[in-house]
Write the structure tokens for this entry.
Amino acid sequence: MKEYTTDHIRNVGLVGHAAGGKTTLVEAMLFAAGEISRMGSVDEGTSASDYHRDEIERKNSISASVLHSNWKDFKINIIDMPGYSDFVGEVRAGLRAVDLALVVLNAQAGAEVGSETAWQTAAENKLPCMLFVNRLDKENVDFDKVVNSARERLGDGVLPVMFPVSANEVVDLLHMKLAGFDAAGKMSLAAIPAKWQGKANEWREKLVERAAESDDKLLEKFFEAGELGADEVKQGLRQGLSQGSLFPLLCGVAPKMFGVQALLDFIIEYGPAPNFRGEVEGRSAGGKITKRSTTDEALPAALVFKTISEAHLGELSFLRVFCGKLNPNTEVLNANTQGSEKIGQLFVMNGKTRKDVAHLHAGDIAAVVKLKHTHTGNTLCDKRETFIIPEIKFPDPLMTIAVEPKSKGDEDKISTGLHAMHAEDPTFIMKVDPELKQILLHGQSELHLGLVVRRLKEKYGVDVNMVEARIPYRETIRGSAREFYRHKKQTGGAGQFGEVHFHMEGYRDGAPYPDDLTIRDTEVIDLPWGGKMEFVSAIVGGAIDARFIPAVKKGIMEIMESGVVAGYPVTDVRVILHDGKMHAVDSNENAFKTAGRMCFRECFIKAKPGIREPIFEVEVTVPDEYMGDVMGDMSGHRGKILGVEASGHNQIVKALVPLKEMAKYSTKLRSMTQGRGIYRQKFSHYEEVPKEQADKLIKAYEEARAQGL
Ligand SMILES: Nc1nc2c(ncn2[C@@H]2O[C@H](COP(=O)(O)OP(=O)(O)OP(=O)(O)O)[C@@H](O)[C@H]2O)c(=O)[nH]1
Ligand SMILES: [Mg+2]
């Protein structure tokens, strides 16, 4: 494989709402450049990018694929990213490796929710952005409307550099020509027909003006002369794109190769080279921010942005070289772990096929095999000096399911498999939850976790059932109570004796103590399971020895952890130990621990126990027309609407919803909005569950205990 130097490399990432045609466009970009000999298709499962079995079956992208196209002596590295929000982690990682985001819009739908989120991620990475309006061949396409929707939702800098005039022709505003595409997608230029001349002049004028605005000198010249030369327009557009003030918009029909040649030309002529920022920022071993020049001469540093392990590919780590030149068979440093790594051969990828390359120049993207201790997000750098490129920010998990092995004894295999898969996909996290006694999988959606479970079976041979994750309820009290408990046992030799008197009430910060008790000592404990416990000593006249008091507290903590009425940890109580009795011979710590535990139990039952559930703050973004459905559904599921905000053509609904009601929200929202809604959620607080539900939980616990579970 030929080597390309930095200025002959372009790195572009395709993003956008699901089914816009990204993968098909990538296929066309490869085919146009002769990279593949036949134009494959997503529908037939023959595309270079969606090669994974799950992708072929589902007919959509799941994982970011790395490909490239050699076009007119340039190497265009292409990352094709999934549009479904379930796989947003792939977009976060993929966009870290490129210098240009290409947002693919569906001409029938305009800018959609998924286009906006991709756009935001690109903006967070300060990435130059351009657009491609695809599917122009569909009925009822109104190109001007698409441009307007892109302007409204994505930014005023959206600037068409062409507009379509027939099924296979566009007016190219850069060259002021009519570009036609034949059945093979080959482009030929002709004069603009008189009919379109007026619109062409008008749009060209806008384009020149916007290009001039990218640079003060150009703008001055534009005002003086009233126009700019071809090179100046080019310079202005390039600059506007690189600095993020202009978002050029092209169009076409990917499966027919219509517009693809023009797109490739545009990327190499106007797209930023990998060194367009001049420097890359990183951290030294001591955490100091440093910068390195993005040239071959700098010490090398590369970010591992993706890791995969598949039977036919082996273990592959994809890396973007940010600075320096990378040679095969070299020892490098994993800057994050300070461990040593060996880079063997370097590979240039096209989906699942790979070719050897002798060196990688600054800015290039490639893959290496069999790294030992390197994970996604790590930097590999020259051993002489640590340089850590900022880690990739993955999204927080949105939902949780639990898995149970189908055959006993598979727990270890589950853990090994899931840990290995987490290295490939950091957006799902596996945890064994000792409180809920479940293996939990946290991820983006049911679809996402369903695919994880499927791969666990296929790759690691472990079959599991997906079940609902238990809800981490909490027990607490709504009233107050006083009780005493005498623990007394006389079995042959030494006996057991301990008596304690408690006053119990709900814990509230700074609440006054009962008037009739003399407070000696108090301690507020932050409980490991959340909430507080205040333990107060109000013992008078040495009724029980000071040495027994910690034992009483220990007994309380034990029962608080295991729960009293429904088997869930207890939170937010104040216990005042105000009296007791001891026996000169039979009292010991154990006896007082038991007395403490039992007295807590009696008091708790008397003090109106209640059950609390976790409430999440949920933020749903949907197009206007779905807002009513989303709000109705929330209210029907015990949600409290906090407010609604408009954001372009979308509405953001904010609500407080019990976690229990969010169990299958990703699937529900998708069907309610035809995939056009997204949501986020974060823990807010605990709240009491309705009485019927509390009774149900208590009953279930009693039944389980009766059966000895
Ligand atoms: N008519 C028409 N169909 C297209 C065009 N581009 C893509 N398609 C079809 O649209 C569907 C989705 O195309 P993909 O290329 O998989 O879209 P994508 O953006 O990669 O989708 P995700 O990976 O799910 O985000 C497929 O059935 C394609 O054949 C187009 O320009 N015109
Ligand atoms: Mg795709």
Remarks:
- The longest strand covers residues 609-623.
